[in-house]
UniProtKB/TrEMBL annotation, chain A:
This is Succinate dehydrogenase flavoprotein subunit. Residues 14-435 form the FAD-dependent oxidoreductase 2 FAD-binding domain. NCBIfam families: PRK07803.1. Residues 503-530 form a coiled coil.
Automatic annotation (TrEMBL), chain B:
Its cofactor is [3Fe-4S] cluster; [4Fe-4S] cluster; [2Fe-2S] cluster. Residues 254-355 are annotated as: Disordered. SUPFAM superfamilies: 2Fe-2S ferredoxin-like (SSF54292), alpha-helical ferredoxin (SSF46548). The keyword S-adenosyl-L-methionine does not apply. It holds the Pfam family Fer2_3. Keywords: 2Fe-2S, 4Fe-4S, Iron, Iron-sulfur, Metal-binding, Oxidoreductase. The keyword NADP does not apply. Pathway: Carbohydrate metabolism; tricarboxylic acid cycle. Residues 5-92 form the 2Fe-2S ferredoxin-type domain. This is 2Fe-2S ferredoxin-type domain-containing protein. It comes from Micromonospora gifhornensis. Belongs to the succinate dehydrogenase/fumarate reductase iron-sulfur protein family. NCBIfam families: dhsB (TIGR00384), PRK12386.1 (NF009052).
Amino acid sequence: MTSTTTRIERHHYDVVVIGAGGAGLRAAIEARLAGKKTAIISKSLFGKAHTVMAEGGAAAAMGNVNSRDNWQVHFRDTMRGGKFLNNFRMAELHAKEAPQRIWELETYGALFDRTKDGKISQRNFGGHEYPRLAHVGDRTGLELIRTLQQKIVSLQQEDKQEFGSYDARIRVFSETTITELLLDGDRVAGAFGYYRESGEFILFEAPAVVLATGGVGRSYKVTSNSWEYTGDGHALALRAGATLINMEFLQFHPTGMVWPPSVKGILVTESVRGDGGILKNSEGKRFMFDYVPDVFRKQYAETEEEADRWYTDPDNNRRPPELLPRDEVARAINSEVKAGRGTPAGGVYLDIASRLPAEEIRRRLPSMHHQFKGLADVDITKEPMEVGPTCHYVMGGVEVDPDTGAAYGSVRGLFAAGEVSGGMHGSNRLGGNSLSDLLVFGKRAGGHAANYIDQLTARPRVEVTAVETAVETALAPLQRDTGENPYTLQQDLQAVMGDLVGIIRREAELADALVRLAELRERVAKVSAAGGRRYNPGWHLALDLRNMLVVSECTAKAALERRESRGGHTREDHPTMDPQWRRVNLVCSLEGDTVRLDRKPLPKMRAELIALFDRAELAKYLTDEELAEFDALAAAEAEDTDAAGKES
Amino acid sequence: MGTKRQFRIWRGDADGGELQDYAVEVNEGEVVLDVIHRLQATDAPDLACRWNCKAGKCGSCSMEINGMPKLGCMTRMSTFEENETVTVTPLRTFPVIRDLVTDVSFNYEKARETPAFAPPADLAPGDYRMQQVDVERSQEFRKCIECFLCQTVCHVIRDHDDNKPAFSGPRYFIRAAELDMHPLDDRTDRKEYAQSEQGLGFCNITKCCTEVCPEHIKITDNGIIPMKERVVDRRYDPLVWLGSKIFRRGQVPQTIVTSEHSPGAVRSSASGQGVHSHAGGSHDSAAEVQAQQGVNWHREVPRPTAPAVGANGKLPLTELTSDRAAAPSPFGDDVTFPLPPEHLNFAHPKQDEKH
Ligand SMILES: Cc1cc2nc3c(=O)[nH]c(=O)nc-3n(C[C@H](O)[C@H](O)[C@H](O)COP(=O)(O)OP(=O)(O)OC[C@H]3O[C@@H](n4cnc5c(N)ncnc54)[C@H](O)[C@@H]3O)c2cc1C
Ligand code: SF4
Ligand code: SF4
Ligand code: FES
């Protein structure tokens, strides 16, 4: 019996940032710049967080490529993308502040691709009216995280000069997992976790915690997300008394790889379809023509001939249905597979080989050519790819105050930013809006966490009993040897979520999912992990399972409740958007052990913001009552300008 | 459609370990990391291994496969013969934590020592102007995913722990090169720094680092050599290649590091004759045994143990306070300094003397 099992390393900080992705690092930088002692905690090594995988770019209306771009246009695009369910204030702040946040990165050493006149280059992306994404080839996320990482190093070097230690004011705890937040009454007092490497425990005492833990994709079998995405931050927030919103909205990207098994879920870029790639089922039929919804009928081609002419003559022909919005394509692929017309690996074929000369494919899609050659041994110039929808991003998350990032609910001193927070993207996120979201709200959360501490009169204290309980909970799976293997449980959970709470949802299946999740909850409570405490992935998974479970329950419950289809939530039994539902956010909280769901009205957009849209567009989303209000506003404004006109 | 394939995976920790044999089902199209995941889900749930992205983007899953430093997620099973035994070992240059996980903190320390980007004082954010051709040279180095494969392969530290303090390794040479080539970096001494502080002189341009880089960064040709050119050490011709690049432990030729004021060149007495062992399959059984036992992985880490409970059946909680900055105040967290004078019970020896 060594002392290692009973030792708890204890640290005192002002701000503890959980998560070392874009949001976490930006928050930490801000807290440190405000003079706070800051800790950064990450489940993997420093610089390996999910942000590293982002490819396309970061959206910011800098207007470098098209000078007509500005924050109002970006704001409009974001609201449209989210089907008007976004928190308008977050979308507004995001659109206004994103350019500054990107420019700031250059002062940290980032090297974006350039325009001819030496400014940051910007590229087109789905849903963005003008070229807007700052990028570095197809590795923008890597540039972003490396830049922030290096900025932190540079701050540490300053501290070394001043105090003699790199760790004097900002320290990175890598491969450390937080399992519990500790409270003093309703105030955050600290965080408890373990070092993955040694299995030893660590306690942070801190009056403010910033959550930046990313998403929940590991609850699905087919996902572009890594093992880290077990919804820890979502679950920690719930257990601390905070609330989650929009948990029913998950973004499924229509084309992820499905074969070979090694790469199931990895993204296949949308440009394949943009450059002429077509989708076929196992019978060789180009099926997308059967799935054009009425609202899009006018913009999309009806015959293959017309669709094919579009690539060369877009003015006189309509677009091929392969280029419908992401959710439509994902849904179509899903139906084909369910109807038994899928490929052996459960996807459909994406064929570019028969559409373009090999030479041309290699020139236009070098990274896809390389990816399929390298990972699947498939030569996309000769064979079709197999693709299917993959779980990509969670729009839902911690309900926060838009300006400060402070979590709502009963808890104080808890902040959230990045994918773990909710509201910014509404029911559907536009590509490129996540990276800028991380920077804008990361900075805000870090800064306001620092402010919050300044207003405290006394430091909250950590209860010893709470620590004891946390230790016991963490060790429990190792002490049991009667329970099930965590990997089996994870597979079962993924099966429930993938089959019953997947891309197309039905009332009966969702109800069934809730029953099964309840069963799983019993089994997860008894999970056991073999082996010891040192770098034991089985044990780590066992501890993550309860987080995945509670977050999955939130998603299933909210999906059952929302009887409409919108963005990342599709109900087969309620296939259309309902303006009444647009006014409602579904808020999850924890009552004892069970997830509780409440309806909460959406905050109302300010007059000058709603005036940025035209009536015809709003009519698609708003209720009659809201439209009447809009008309009254417009009339009042017209009168104002009239009056002003007469006076002068 | 799966077939059984033979694997030998190093299992153990800092105290030593051994290669264990596994027969694992392998399906078409799988990579080495998939096999490791299958093992975790079946025979070896506690097999330790790092990974994140499974797409060669994060640089977490570095390991040595048949002796060659590689990313597990980018090494397809189809590159091996059906009846070939695949041997997977942890990165050799870094101390083992457990199984395939090594302590790579060496790299983070070196990163921290490399002076950061120095922004130009006279430019406001948003006013940076650079041409694409000028940023491209640095961008090549910024593709680095920090997999540390180049670090583990570099013979200067691979078999010589004692060179570690003075040598930052190829990853950090290209960091210096990147900043050197950055159009707006305000510092002008990057090359000199690389020579005097990072140990650039140790490098004798074997190009092993370039060979293993999964991002195909031309570490030597585009990074190291241009930096050497200006600060070239006259006693040493950088283009003399060593015929032998990597040696297994136990058969390392005598390497003499000439270190005068600044670190000089590395010379090897076995030039041309040592066994080139990228594939790891040296046929020296003694060396093989030594390598498996993890010689020199001197890290004291306790073995896994069951949790101990106190008399009350609960865990006795003892607390260890950190000696670093950010440790708790011995006066309690509520006390701020300076204390108000009225709270002090200190009496100055001469306080009663009238001034
Ligand atoms: C393949 C792919 C491509 C993408 N492309 C784009 C794109 O082009 N543009 C765009 O805008 N967005 C893109 N996204 C989305 C975007 O990358 C993510 O939404 C974003 O990076 C999330 O950042 P984050 O800072 O919130 O969290 P992350 O970067 O995921 O970081 C989470 C951090 O929290 C830590 N953590 C989690 N739980 C714990 C715990 N319990 N204890 C301690 N630490 C914990 C993790 O270790 C990690 O460091 C893409 C996503 C994927 C998967
Ligand atoms: S070229 Fe230099 S840095 Fe690279 S492996 Fe050889 S000695 Fe090491
Ligand atoms: S330079 Fe290449 S091999 Fe070295 S750490 Fe970077 S990506 Fe890996
Ligand atoms: S898992 Fe990311 S590089 Fe292999």
